[in-house]
Amino acid sequence: MRVLYFGTYERDYPRNAQVISALREAGVEVVERHVSVWEGRDNWQVGATTAARLAVAELRLFRRPREEFDALVVGYPGHLDLRAARRVAAGRPIVFNPLVSLYDTFVADRGRFTPTSAAGRALHSIDRRALRAADLVVADTEADADFLATLAGIPPSRVEVCFVGAEERVFSAGWAPADPFEALFIGKLIPLHGVATVLEAARLAPGLRFKVVGSGQLEPLLHNRPPNVEHVPWADYEGLPGELHRAGCALGIFGTSDKALRVIPNKVFQALACGTPVVTADTPGARELLADRESALLVPPGDPEALAAAVTRLAEDASLARRVADAGLAAYRARASERVLGERWRGLIESLVH
User: Fold this and answer.
1) In sequence order, what E strands does the chain have?
2) Second label for 226, Cα 20 to 30 Å away, from 20, 39, 220, 319?
3) What is the pTM of this model?
């Protein structure tokens, strides 16, 4: 089977790289039709330049490809690529890998626009049109699948689930925590990740070290960080496994938005693949993969006291940390490895082709 991975998708984003890698691992030939728009660390800056680049990219995507293929997958963030995808697919199945709702991300979660603003209404419309245009939408959790089906007004049967997983050419087991213990937070500094909760937890546990790797919307919160918090604005992707292998534990997300309750972020899968014990929010999304005090320590969203207590437990109990690390790695391998997800993706696409 040959799949065309299509669109203005962010080529290096873990969801896209991992899906392509997993499909190839499952014996699927993947060819790419990619036009760059979103690459770069400031890839989501909205303005005339980005709009012009996107318009040119969409025109290029409309050209019929020379490659033969059985199905087309629109990668993330491909919400504006579905019209071109329909032309290129020429009746062949289209699978949309949206990862997020643009409306949910920029209106409900980050608060960039109000629901009734022109931008908010436009994002809602873009989401609905894109989701409805695909023959199959693949979400990252059951909770997100239910949300996307409701948002688009499509039958739940048109939305399936594949976990995000981790790109295993980069992330592999090898946890060997350094001394002293350090709790590691990696990710964009956006409301979803709950960096304010992490900083307050650090204040409540002044004897422990915390490291925050990332930048973004809430970076000003780091200006008055407590002295036990190190901030590194950016780290090379290929160097993240080393950070995870040395960390005493990895911190997931702790936001309280509806979106935060539904998702399991890339960084949690990456930590699990590295065999690093994870502390993250106790949410419906997280519970689809993880069990509290078994494969992770789960704490109430937005609760710095509970987060500080969980990190302290791991710092003081090496045997507990090892049990959580081993069980987390086992959960990853059983349900979210490239082998497992590759077979899942292949099966979903084959069900449309045959």
Assistant:
1) 2-7, 29-34, 71-74, 94-96, 136-139, 159-161, 182-186, 209-213, 229-232, 249-251, 278-281, 297-299
2) 319
3) 0.91
Cβ(295)–Cβ(330) under 8 Å? yes
Residue count of the chain:
354
Provide the 8-state DSSP code for 292: B
Distance between CA 307 and CA 301 in Å, rounded? 9
Q: C-alpha distances in angstroms, 293 versus 190, 201, 284?
A: 27, 19, 16
Amino acid making up residue 151: L
d(CA 113, CA 109): 10
Burial 74-89 (b: 16+ CB within 10 A, else e): bbbbbbbbbebbeebb
269-327 tens-digit pLDDT: 999 999 999 999 999 999 999 999 999 999 999 999 999 999 999 999 999 999 999 99
State phi, psi for 289 to the nearest 5 degrees.
Answer: -125, -35
Whole-Å CA distances, 24 to 21, 68, 335:
5, 17, 18
